[in-house]
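Q: Here's a chain of 301 amino acids. Please give me its 3D structure as C-alpha cells.
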Amino acid sequence: MKNKNITPVTIERIVSLYNVPHLDNDVILVDSLKKLPELTEARRMSLCLFIGLCTDGVASISVNDKKRIASRNNIMIITDESVVGSINFSDDFEGFGFFISYKLLQEILKDVQNMSDLVLLTHNHPVFEVNKAERDMIIHYFQEIMERVKFMTHRYRLEVVRLMLLTMIYDLASAFDRIVADTGKGDKQSRAERIFVQFLQLVEHHYREQRQVQWYAARMDMSPKYLCEIISSVSRRSPNEWIDKFVTTEIRNQLRHTTKRISEIAKDMNFPTQSFLGKYFKENVGVSPSDYRNGIEGIEK
C-alpha cells in the first residue's frame, strides 16, 4: 500500500537500521548493496547522495519514475531529493556504494569549479558505464576509504576521508569529461559552468515555490535574458525547461508513489488550484495527472 508521503532515506536512518561501516552521520560504506532491502515502495533521498558501482549481474532501479538498468561497470548516482521507486537485484548481482551527506558534500565541493558536466550528467543519466580503468579506480577508492573509516583510533580520520572523497570526485569528474567528450560536447567557459551549477542548485531547492526565471535571475544578480543565454549555451535547455523538469518530476513522483489527492499535490507545489496544476502538467507531460496516475506515461522530459 502506498504511503501518504514518500518515505525519506537519510544517513541517520540507514545507520540505525543496518550494521554498515560509517563515519558519524556523514559517510556510509556498503560493501554489498544486497545488504540493503529490495524496495517495494518509493523512497526519497534526503540530504544525501548515493554513488554505487555494479561489478557483476544486473540491478533494475527506478529513479524519479524512470526505469534504469545497471549492469557490470555501471555507476549509479542518485542525488538529493531524487525518488527511488524500486530496486531489484539479479541473483548474481554484485556491487557496492557510498552514501555521503549533503552537508559534507557541500563542504568538500565548496572550492571545486567546472563541475557542470557532472551535474548535468547525473540529472539526466543516473546510471552510466565506465571503462575498466575507471572501474578499478573506484574500487580502489572504496577499499581505501573503508580502511580509514574503520581506523577508529586515527586522530584525523574525518579529515583524511574528506580529502579522499574529494580526490575521488575529481577522478570521477575526469571520467565524466571522457563521457561528455565521447558525445561530442564542446568545452565550456568556467564562468558559464559556475552559473549553470548555481542555477541548478537554486532550482533544486526552490522549484516548489518559484517557477519564474525572473526570480532566479534576481537571486543571481543578472538579467533574465543573460541567464537564459548562459544556461542554454551550457546545457542546451532553457532555464524554463530546467524548472519545468524539476516541477514535473516531483509531480510524477507524488502521483505514482503517494496516495495524496491531486488537490493536495497542487497545494504542496504551490499551484493556486488543482485545475492550474492539471493544465501545467498536461502541457509539459502530454497527459492529465489522473491519466498519469493510472499508468499512462506521457512524454519524456
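Q: Can you summarize the key feature?
A: The mean pLDDT is 88.
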